[in-house]
Write a structure and sequence with these properties.
- The complex is a heterodimer.
- Chain A has 23 helices and 20 strands.
- Chain A is α/β, with parallel strands linked by helices.
- Chain A has a six-stranded parallel sheet with strand order 3-2-4-5-7-6, with helices on both faces.
- In chain A, helix 3 packs parallel to helix 4 and helix 11 packs across helix 14.
- Chain B is of the alpha+beta class.
- Chain B has four helices and nine strands.
- In chain B, the strands form two sheets. In chain B, strands 5, 6, 7, 8 and 9 form a five-stranded antiparallel sheet that branches.
- Classes of the chains: A alpha/beta, B alpha+beta.
Chain lengths: 590, 169
């Protein structure tokens, strides 16, 4: 079967449309002009013009994460366009977000000549993409783009980059649709049934079991989250989640213990430490979760369900690996649990639940109320109250204290409603991610919970929000400090607050107005509720600048290099368990 | 724990022969801090554009397993086999050895070369170039025997390896 003849640039648009893309985030430049020209003549793919290429990648991430299964798409030019995209690509790689990034490249005959705006894009992005391609032949272009989508979506998802020299965009060749090709890349999806069977038997026998779930459940789709919820309820086992996994199991459920890890809940971390069976589903035992690896969950057998075999036994030795899609594994577990007539082990688990309730009663997120100063936790509690009962709320965050507080204080009952930079911890993620999310959900409430330092890293994207009339709400918890840096300096560096104070911050209300958006400020506890109400009721993008306590710290906290049972509940807990040696050891960790 | 013991493994890796594939493999090792003791690569199936990499690496058991899993994850990698783990295998490397020596030592040099089955592929009044193909250990031994007999210059390929018996990758 022969395909249609068209230019490489036209093929890009045709291939995007054939792969279900309706929105692409990008920024033009010399090496992608033919593609922009082809875009001008079509209506299938909408383009969102960002203000810096890094914003395009985070916007595409927000778009992909909030839509459960769609691939985020980015189009940028060669050289600086590509290098600006690098942070976002690595962010997507670390958090397993499916993206396609098309970069322009100098014409084939100039590659390697240090031409204007030339960069070795495939070389630079090799370690920060799942895969990348340099296409030198227009007749390979269609197949390459289709394969790129297949790779981005299959197995553990991730970003795939296609570097496209300008002459290939102009050249004419044959276009064939995705169904004309088969691809050799086919990572395992279906789990080994015997392993699943064993996992279920281990669960049925456990007396102090715990589910530890992560972003893999979100990536496996909403059905996987529903299956997880059914299985957790059926087995009566407590469930904790990583930062990435929030929303897979409903936060409002009594069986949910909150997030685990460095700033996770007391009950989640002590349950992780004390369980006799840890059932990890789609999470990767990263250092923010494990703390000191040698003291991590020391008395438990561990089951690790992951689609990526290289995640298993990477950081923590497990007893039973199950390689496969989280959704498929959970379905199989549920089926076996039911067909073999297992029952929730209520009697054996009663002491375990009693212990967990005692930990929960510690109320680890409690903080000292203040007036008129707004505590950041209080700001989030009021935001939470204002959003109560709505199910069309999407939250993105920047990175730092506000991010951890958002994870602690905002409830996520559904997957794909929480977009945060987990693995890479990219400040500046939240605003562009909110833009991408709002593009996918025009009528929804999309809020970027931000800090005043992070928001400045991609503040230029306010202009994008205004241009596309995207009513994103930016909830800045402004403490004038890089709060998490300050917190570490206070706890680990003798209170020497080196370069963590931002003098000369902009007036965020005026800044919003300068962009053509609305600015609101809350300075005291009395202002807060009306300011939040105004933020939510004002059409169009709004920045709400909430002035919060400048020195508040985020607790609980497991200091670097410490074990879960050395968790600090507050500043006065300092040094109680962590001796000087641990602190020194912890200081060298990030 | 036995985990702490360092093991040396020989891996055979079948890859699509496309630009950048070797950079992906090497980048994986340098980026994650794994060891490469030797690496050889050449196309082995022209019609399918497949190349074979023979790679000798070392690490704890956990690291070796990680290396294999990480390699398998790369898109252009078709197959990864751990020859060390999967049974007996044969491994050979080729070395070219130039020996520059004084007159009085040339006979001894030739005697050693003969005992290792090395072929003379170049000679001059003051030098020989030998070609020897053998296991890494044998080549090491050959070089140490020659060490006192003159100035040496050595080029080695690193090993290529196949499993013994009828099984193939």
């Amino acid at each position: 079967m022969s395909g249609r003849q068209m230019s490489g640039a036209e093929m890009v648009l045709a291939a995007l449309a054939d792969n279900g893309v309706d929105t692409i985030f990008g920024y033009p430049g010399g090496a992608v002009l033919p593609i922009y020209d082809a875009m001008f003549k079509q209506t299938l793919v909408r383009h969102v013009l960002v203000r810096q290429e890094g914003g395009a990648v985070h916007a595409a991430e927000g778009y992909a994460r909030s839509t459960a299964g769609k691939v985020g798409c980015v189009l940028v030019t060669s050289g600086p366009g590509a290098t600006n995209a690098v942070t976002g690509l690595l962010d997507a790689q670390m958090d397993s977000i499916p993206l396609i990034c098309i970069t322009g490249q100098v014409p084939t005959h100039l590659i390697g000549n240090d031409a204007f705006q030339e960069a070795d894009t495939t070389g630079i992005t090799r370690p920060c993409t799942k895969h990348n391609y340099l296409v030198k032949d227009v007749n390979k272009l269609a197949e390459t783009i289709h394969e790129a989508f297949h790779v981005a979506r299959s197995g553990r998802p991730g970003p795939v980059l296609i570097d496209l020299p300008k002459d290939v965009q102009f050249a004419t060749g044959e276009y064939r649709p995705p169904e004309d090709f088969t691809f050799t890349y086919n990572p395992p999806f279906e789990p080994d049934q015997a392993a699943v069977e064993r996992a279920v038997e281990m669960i049925a026998k456990a007396e102090r079991p715990l589910f530890y779930t992560g972003g893999g459940v979100i990536n496996a789709g909403p059905a996987a989250a529903a299956t997880l919820t059914e299985l957790v309820r059926l087995t009566g086992i407590p469930c904790t989640s990583t930062l990435m996994g929030l929303g897979a199991f409903p936060a409002s459920d009594r069986q949910f213990l909150g997030m685990l890890g460095m700033h996770g809940s007391y009950e989640a971390n002590l349950a992780t430490h004390g369980c006799d069976l840890l059932i990890c589903v789609g999470a990767r035992f990263d250092d923010r979760v494990t703390g000191k690896v040698s003291a991590f969950s020391p008395g438990s057998k561990k089951i690790h369900i992951d689609i990526d075999a290289s995640s298993i036994n990477k950081n923590v030795r497990v007893d039973l690996p199950v390689v496969g899609d989280a959704g498929r594994v959970l379905e199989a577990m549920l089926r076996i649990w039911k067909s073999r007539g297992f029952q929730a082990n209520a009697e054996a688990m009663a002491p375990w639940w009693a212990q967990i309730e005692a930990w929960r009663a510690v109320d680890c997120f409690a903080y000292r109320r203040a007036d008129p100063v707004i505590k950041p936790q209080y700001a989030l509690e009021r935001l939470r109250a204002a959003l109560k009962g709505r199910d069309d709320v999407y939250i993105t965050t920047e990175v730092g204290q506000h991010q951890m507080w958002a994870a602690q204080f905002l409830p996520f009952d559904k997957p794909n409603h929480w977009m945060t930079s987990g693995g890479l911890g990219t400040m500046g993620y939240g605003l562009p991610a909110a833009i991408g999310t709002q593009m996918a959900h025009p009528g929804a409430v999309v809020i970027d919970v931000a800090g005043e330092a992070s928001i400045l890293m991609n503040i230029q994207e306010m202009s994008t929000a205004v241009q596309y009339r995207l009513p994103v709400k930016i909830f800045i918890m402004n403490n004038k400090w890089m709060g998490m840096v300050r917190q570490w300096q206070e706890l680990l560096h003798g209170g020497r607050f080196s370069e963590s104070y931002t003098a000369a911050l902009p007036d965020f209300v005026k800044l919003a107005e300068a962009f053509g958006a609305t600015g609101v400020r809350a300075e005291t506890v009395d202002d807060l509720d009306s300011a939040i109400a105004r933020m939510l009721s004002t059409p169009g993008p709004v920045i709400l600048d909430v002035l919060v306590d400048e020195t508040e710290m985020c607790f609980p906290m497991i200091p670097g290099g410490a074990a879960h049972n050395e968790i600090m509940l507050g500043p006065n807990d300092r040094g109680q368990q962590a001796d000087a040696a641990t602190r020194e050891e912890g200081m060298v960790l990030v | 724990m036995p985990e702490a013991a360092i093991e040396r493994h020989t891996l055979a890796v079948l890859v699509v022969n496309e630009p950048g594939v070797l950079a992906r493999v090497i980048g994986l090792f340098s980026g994650r801090g794994y060891n490469i003791e030797s690496l050889t690569v050449a196309e082995v199936e022209r019609d399918k554009a497949l190349s074979r990499i023979t790679l000798v690496t070392s690490g704890t058991r956990m690291i070796i397993d990680q290396i294999k899993a990480q390699l398998e994850r790369l898109v252009p990698i078709h197959r990864v086999r751990d020859l060390t783990e999967e049974g007996p295998f044969v491994g050979r490397e080729l070395a070219l050895v130039k020996v520059v020596s004084e007159n009085g030592k040339r006979a001894e040099v030739l005697r050693i070369a003969e005992s290792f089955g090395a072929r003379i592929i170049d000679s001059s009044e003051s030098s020989f170039v030998f070609e020897v193909t053998d296991t890494t250990e044998k080549v090491d031994q050959f070089l140490s025997m020659l060490a006192g007999l003159g100035r040496l210059e050595v080029a080695r390929t690193g090993i290529v390896a196949l499993s013994r018996g009828p099984e193939s990758i």
